[in-house]
């Protein structure tokens, strides 16, 4: 009997990999499809840019446009202009007074609050004071506005410590959103509310949240057809780039023969790549995504070595070797 067979190893019973090989390859036909989309993408971007610049004439509409760009996953094309315009509006006395005016409804104030805080501008929570009654509670008639309550709920996710009114807004909106789900509201709005209650969009993986919002926006009566088409094409082009990157990571994984040489580790290439997508999805970070995914695969192997293979004696030696290793040494 060999020495290896006498060693008791704490092998874990990991579930099988659920991803099919189709996710790890990228065909020439898909590359040709990208080339066909590029010209249309460029034309639509020009049109969206024109609409974005035109929206500057009305600061409220401008920020609503920015919100749509963010949720549709295309704000990265306009980052400099967005920061510029938000900074100008945030420092404008007239704009701050406009937000607090009675004509600015709950939906709008909630949306403005979200956008400003999302980009690092700490709009005061007192913009919601006008929606409270003499008893210090949010007015009950607001419940009739499903979109407004959803906007208030999403705004309350951007609270900071000590903002009591935002804490009240969260309790009020979350309670009533659950009730609104039993009312007669558009199907896409109901789905959006359910998803928001389960997981606020800005806390999710941006590509997944973008895909969801495209379907919500497509069902809206007042949707911008050009903006929607641009968002769809941009999403598809990025998705093809992401698939190409995943194929690259998979080829590295197969070339390293990890499945045959490190048999006890988890086969989680797609999951490792998804982590990198969650960190940054924009096209300019392509190399970073590939390297991050590879690093995560290596970390997974190390983790499994400790949890599902090495004995205590082996791991003490292994740990000592890792602690002594330094890439800075000459």
TrEMBL record:
The family line of this record is: Belongs to the terpene synthase family. Tpsa subfamily.
Q: Give the protein's cofactors.
A: Mn(2+)
| MF GO annotations | magnesium ion binding; terpene synthase activity
Q: Entry's SUPFAM superfamilies? A: Terpenoid cyclases/Protein prenyltransferases (SSF48239), Terpenoid synthases (SSF48576)
UniProt keyword terms in alphabetical order:
Lyase, Magnesium, Metal-binding
Residues in domain Terpene synthase N-terminal? Answer: 19-197
User: Under what name is this protein listed?
Assistant: Terpene synthase N-terminal domain-containing protein
Q: Tell me the organism.
A: Brassica oleracea var. oleracea
Task: Name a single GO biological process.
Answer: terpenoid biosynthetic process
Q: Where is the Terpene synthase metal-binding domain?
A: 256-327
- Keyword presence, Glycosyltransferase: no
């Amino acid at each position: 009997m060999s020495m290896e067979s006498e060693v008791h190893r704490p092998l874990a019973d990991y579930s099988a990999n659920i991803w099919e090989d189709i996710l790890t390859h990228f065909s020439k036909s898909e590359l040709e499809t990208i080339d066909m989309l590029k010209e249309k993408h460029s034309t639509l971007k020009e049109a969206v840019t024109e609409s974005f610049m035109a929206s500057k004439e009305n600061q409220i509409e401008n920020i609503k446009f920015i919100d749509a760009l963010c949720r549709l996953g295309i704000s990265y094309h306009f980052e400099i202009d967005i920061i510029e315009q938000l900074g100008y509006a945030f420092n404008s006395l007239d704009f701050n007074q406009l937000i607090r005016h009675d004509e600015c409804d709950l939906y709008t104030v909630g949306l403005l609050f979200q956008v400003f805080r999302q980009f690092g501008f700490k709009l005061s929570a007192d913009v919601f004071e006008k929606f409270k009654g003499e008893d210090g509670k949010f007015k009950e008639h607001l419940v009739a506005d499903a979109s407004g309550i959803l906007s208030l709920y999403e705004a309350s996710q951007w609270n900071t410590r000590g903002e009591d009114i935002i804490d009240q807004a969260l309790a009020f909106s979350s309670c009533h959103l659950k009730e609104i789900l039993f009312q007669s509201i558009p199907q896409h709005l109901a789905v959006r509310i359910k998803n928001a209650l389960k997981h606020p969009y800005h806390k999710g993986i941006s590509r997944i949240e973008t895909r969801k919002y495209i379907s919500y926006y497509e069902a809206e009566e007042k949707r911008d057809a050009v903006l929607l088409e641009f968002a769809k094409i941009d999403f598809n082009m990025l998705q093809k780039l992401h698939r190409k990157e995943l194929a690259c990571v998979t080829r590295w994984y197969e070339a390293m023969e990890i499945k045959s040489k490190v048999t006890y580790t988890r086969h989680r290439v797609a999951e490792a790549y998804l982590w990198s997508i969650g960190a940054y999805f924009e096209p300019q970070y392509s190399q970073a995504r590939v390297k991050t995914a590879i690093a995560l695969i290596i970390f997974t192997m190390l983790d499994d070595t400790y949890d599902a293979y090495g004995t205590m004696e082996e791991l003490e030696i292994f740990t000592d070797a890792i602690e002594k290793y330094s890439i800075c040494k000459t």
